[in-house]
Amino acid sequence: MAEVGRTAVCDPGALLPGGFWEAVGVWLERPQVANKRLCGARLEARRSAVLPRAEAGGPRTSAGPQLGTAGRVPEESRGRRAAATAPLLAGAPGQPGKAGVEEGDVPASELDSLWSDFSRSLCGNREMLAFLAGSRAGSRPEAQHELDVVLRTVILKSSPHRPLLAPTREMVVQDVLNGTVTFLPLEDDDEGNLKVKMSNVYQIQLSRCREEWFISVLIFCPERWHPDGIAYPKLTWLGEELLTKLARWSVESGKSGFKSTLSLISVLKYSRAYWALKEKYKDMVKVWPEVTDPEKFVYEDVAIATYLLILWEEERAERGVTAKQSFVDLGCGNGLLVHILSSEGHPGRGIDIRRRKIWDMYGPQTRLEEGAITPNDKTLFPDVDWLIGNHSDELTPWIPVIAARSSYNCRFFVLPCCFFDFVGKYQRRQSGKTQYREYLDFITEVGSTCGFHVEEDCLRIPSTKRVCLVGKSRTYPPSRELSLDEQRTQYINSRRGCPLGPAGREPAPASPQAAASSAHHPGGHGALHGAAGHTPEARASELWLPGFQPREKAQRTRNCAALPRDFVDQVVLQVAHLLLGGKQLTGSSPSGTLKTWNRGESLSLAEVASELDRETLQRLKRECGGLQTLLRNNHQVFEVLDGRVHIRDWREQKPPKKKQPEAKRKLVPEAFKTRVCWFFMHHPDGCALPSLCCPFAHGPGELRPSLTARTEERVS
């Protein structure tokens, strides 16, 4: 036995030992957060057991808690057991929302046989018995107490270079009383039965000495440690990287409040499908015509599509059907998610207010429609299995409602991003939660009110907003549809104080039957507003909640770039005048020197704003970012740091890095002298830099045509 790492843990909040068991739970269920080469883990079975006595002639095990007086857990340790058991129970077979038995799984009943064989072998292996019992001072290996034994499958991350990596199985022995967790690798014997192998056995241990806590990583037999770089990393990684993460997780305040990633589907199936789809659609990155980052959007949509494909595959298995689910993606954006799902055999389409350039690249098999979605009796999809809302903004809270009213069999998947209520922006109501957590709870409440069993999951996508909500089934029978729809109507009206109808009655709810008949085209094609025969007045009267406004078709540029040039120049002169102490900005003095050049003063954004007239401020307020954005756009003149505005001193600008990309090295000289120097034209002391050093032209005579202008000339 050898200790490969040990770290002291500062615990000012008295979070230990409970925090230690939460950290162990993370390493058990989500090992990929520490080791990026792992895709995840599956806890297949759990049982309680006891170690055999060292002097006993045979093993003593139990299928459940059988504790005598000597092995009774002390009162102060019961909290540790509760904390330790919770994450393990989350992976128990048969729990709702968890992946069931997959190909290659070991039945839970075999864990009993596996433990019996192993505990029998411990009678002749005192070293392993002592290792399992814990080696710190005060431990009593001979005293029997309850253990938690878990059968775990570690799923390795596949890739085009390693597509067929088999999962690794382990038996994890958790000793709450002694504060140890031992990981025992499993292998098949000659007869195909699982057994414990004595190589690559390690233990995580929590100990306390003189009021100080320590976490250690120990190896049972260092000479038998054979790292493979994936499931079994080098000992230095265990003793440094893993130990550091465990210590940090142990004292982090509270839980994240979010589910572990991919908790509703099979991680193994997801891993295999993701790499296959990523390889299949990776060329989209090379031809991406949009201004958005291709790698982020392509691989994010590949991950979302993979999740839905596995979710739907498992749903078909549960329902005993073979036909692939149909779908409609509301607010489909670039349409890549629709393209992937359609290419994989699912009939569906996407709808968005604005057409994208990339739509023309997908081909006729990908159905994408340009149109506005407004929540009303005509925006229903009675023949569709799933409604998708992937960053659907103002439609997000309406998607569960539309799904519920489309048909009893319609389900939904939403991935909330921006925070919208039924009408307008979502207003926070609970200071004790983050805005993101509160908004997710709101969408869950909407789905539950609409009659769905709403489940939450966390996707593996390159985004900070990666929690999805899934409504796969209803909480009520079809016969209660009318009463549930009344409940939906009351809830929607309560969110914004919708006025009541005549004689104090609420507007009549839209029944599913009326909704189905109003969707005159199969598949809900007639659900889009903006079609012939629907005036704005008629559309407003049909809205489920007056005041809803779909996003504008033409995206407004709201970064101050669209403001008139003369207005921007006027604001720039006003702010510079303030910073330079009221000096007149009428012309330049070419004799500006390092000693006399006026750098001006520093003012806060609030101080600058207070000196501008109300009309100017109102005009800036209508632009995203307002005054600060305008000043930063004019970075030749101003520098905005920590909320304070300064005149930029070009003498202090750092020279560009020597090792720049080749494209940038070529473009930098081409960009010189294409604009007149503001300081040369307006600063009382002129420009602080000589003409040869200034990247801007000191007078019209130095101006050079811009690269953009020359490119346009060549094209024409």
Automatic annotation (TrEMBL):
> For the C3H1-type domain, which residue ranges apply?
671-701
- The kind of enzyme this is, by top-level EC class, is transferase
Catalytic activity reads: uridine(44) in tRNA(Ser) + S-adenosyl-L-methionine = 2'-O-methyluridine(44) in tRNA(Ser) + S-adenosyl-L-homocysteine + H(+)
Q: Where is this region: Disordered?
A: 52-104, 495-535
Q: What is its main location?
A: cytoplasm
- As recorded in UniProt, its EC number(s) are 2.1.1.211
Which Pfam family name is an example for this entry?
A: AdoMet_MTase
- Which keywords does the record carry? Cytoplasm, Metal-binding, Methyltransferase, S-adenosyl-L-methionine, Transferase, tRNA processing, Zinc, Zinc-finger
For bias type Low complexity, the affected ranges are 82-99, 507-521
Spell out the InterPro entries in the cross-references. SAM-dependent_MTases_sf, tRNA_uracil_MeTrfase, Znf_CCCH
Enumerate the subcellular locations listed in this protein's record, separating them with semicolons: Cytoplasm
Endoplasmic reticulum in keyword set: no
Zinc finger C3H1-type: from-to? 671-701
Q: Which family does it belong to?
A: Belongs to the TRM44 family.
State the protein's purpose.
Adenosyl-L-methionine (AdoMet)-dependent tRNA (uracil-O(2)-)-methyltransferase. Probable adenosyl-L-methionine (AdoMet)-dependent tRNA (uracil-O(2)-)-methyltransferase.
Report what the protein is called.
tRNA (uracil-O(2)-)-methyltransferase
Annotated source species: Equus przewalskii
